[in-house]
Amino acid sequence: MAEQLRYDGQVVVVTGAGGGLGKAYATFFASRGASVVVNDLGGSFKGEGNDSKAADVVVNEIKAAGGKAVANYNSVEDGDKIIETAIKAFGRIDILINNAGILRDVSFKNMKDVDWDLIMKVHVKGSYKCARAAWPHFRKQKFGRVINTASAAGLFGNFGQANYSAAKLAMVGFTETLAKEGAKYNIISNVIAPIAASRMTETVMPPDVLALMRPEWVVPLVAVLVHKNNTSESGSIFEVGGGHIAKLRWERSSGLLLKCDDTYTPGAILKKWNKVTDFSDPQYPSGPNDFLTLLEESQKLGPNEQ
Ligand code: NAD
Fold it and tell me: Which residue has the least CA distance to atom 44 on ligand 1?
């Protein structure tokens, strides 16, 4: 049997830990030896209001089970204050789980600036602010683990969620860059697109389906990714929920290369459109194409067919 993964002596910050997935992360890490900052603003799922009760209930539950936890009630937009709570209470920060989130679902035709701005503030700015405040600690101690939270809506789009989709795909680019910048300092960053029963999903899915999507079933993947033994899986995107875990990656067609001269026209592209979209010999890139080499090769070609 594999040894139980533990987090003794480590400090975990979980944002939006007053309910749903965040609560499941917080109680898990506390049960495996970590000290946990339970952050939650305690507002509605649309981002209205605030209430300290959400975080307090989880902290009390953790303490009653013999674990270590403190509450923080700031919005993730003030991420520096959340990280400060970790430093003041426990003297360090090892693992950051950017989980807090809200929805402002509305068709794009009816979307208002406030729906767009609030989603960007909580998901994008909130994740940035928490990670930015944790970063100097991670670099100094040459250890850090970050989980950012995307969504299938961000990866694939979803009706009524233009704001949320944009914010959630932003989490992918953010994670990729943190993974690259953190590599030298043993800072590992990954992004998950979870699916779980919570107040966010309870209105859009039937109870029998929700029963098969417990938040607790997202936790084990996150536990593996943020563990100190994971020193290589970084900058990765995972779908996780209902017992299923899969990694996603970019796929690039081998593509069309044209000569860059006055025969480089829309007609020349249309003539060979099938090469642009041909995935029979795909690449799985982790960075942009080698533009300079391609440019050199294109110059060796003859004029393009029209
Ligand atoms: P949830 O509503 O149960 O939990 C989100 C928590 O974040 C709430 O407790 C809320 O009070 C808190 N929060 C909201 N705004 C905050 C802020 N500004 N500062 C601090 N806390 C704040 O929802 P959940 O389903 O557990 O969602 C957790 C994360 O997973 C979110 O980022 C969500 O977008 C993402 N997600 C969930 C699903 C799913 O199927 N449940 C699917 C895709 C993505």
Answer: 151
Q: Which helix (H) or strand (E) holds 87?
A: helix 79-90
Distance CA 267, CA 304 (A): 9
Task: State the average pLDDT over residues 221-226.
Answer: 98
Averaged pLDDT for residues 179-207:
95
Sheet holding 35-39, edge to edge: 68-72, 35-39, 11-14, 95-97, 144-149, 187-194, 237-241, 244-248
254 backbone dihedrals φ, ψ, rounded to 5° = -65, -25
The pTM of this model reads 0.97
Contact between residue 101 and residue 18 where contact means Cβ atoms under 8 Å apart: no
Residues annotated as part of the active site: 164, 168
The interface pTM score, or ipTM, of the predicted complex is 0.99
Distance CA 110, CA 191 (A): 30
Q: Is the pLDDT of residue 213 over 90?
A: yes
1 pLDDT above the threshold of 80: no
What H or E segment, with its residue span, contains residue 245?
A: strand 244-248
Q: Which stretches does DSSP call E strand in 152-223?
A: 187-194
Rg (CA), the chain: 22
Q: Is 41 in the pocket of ligand 1 (CB under 6 A)?
A: yes
